Amino acid sequence: MDIEFKGKVWYWRGPAPWFFITVPEEQSRDLKAVLKLVTYGWGMIPVDARIGKTAWKTSMFPKDGRYIVPIKTSVRQAENIEEGDTVSIQIEVH
User: Fold this and answer.
1) How far apart are CA 52 and CA 59, in angstroms?
2) pTM (2 d.p.)
3) Domain 2-93 is found in CATH 2.40.30.100
């Protein structure tokens, strides 16, 4: 399953601070439909992600009825991404 969408980069200031992009509602519903086939537990979904020319492996996880994609520091630096930027992201679900 491949999905592509645009989303705003946001920062979570929790115990382990991190940057994320939230998957839109429609694509989150699609992901929930295949969840049992792809999750390795707790709703986590392993994916290959790409923003611009930068690709990485990560896992999406559920939050507030949708999914969120963590954006690594190396990706943000390579693509010059800051909090609040809207970016296009491609996701390939394993």
Assistant:
1) 19
2) 0.90
3) yes
